[in-house]
Amino acid sequence: MSAANGTPALSFDLTPELLETLAERVAEILAERQAPNGGDGWLRGAGRIAGYLDCPPSRVYALASARRIPVHRDGSNLIARQSELDAWVRAGGGVRP
Known about the structure:
Layout: H1 16-34, E1 42-44, H2 46-53, H3 57-65, E2 72-74, E3 77-81, H4 82-90
Antiparallel strand pairs: 1-3, 2-3
Helix pairs in contact: 2-3
């Protein structure tokens, strides 16, 4: 079978599980492309970090004080790289030891 432009058409037999995995990966790639700096930008301030993590700023301050969240300091400001926060969340995030 050929496509309308004369190139061969591709055909795949995909299981529902494989199709779901493929759809999730495509969604991740699209989200990375839409995010500034490829999804690896810096977040400045506890409010922006909290917004990214969908938690109150007080939780960010508490986790930072306990050194349980990957944040850096720029003077008195907290800053965090999105990719470091994402890895932290995937590894269990703020779950108490």
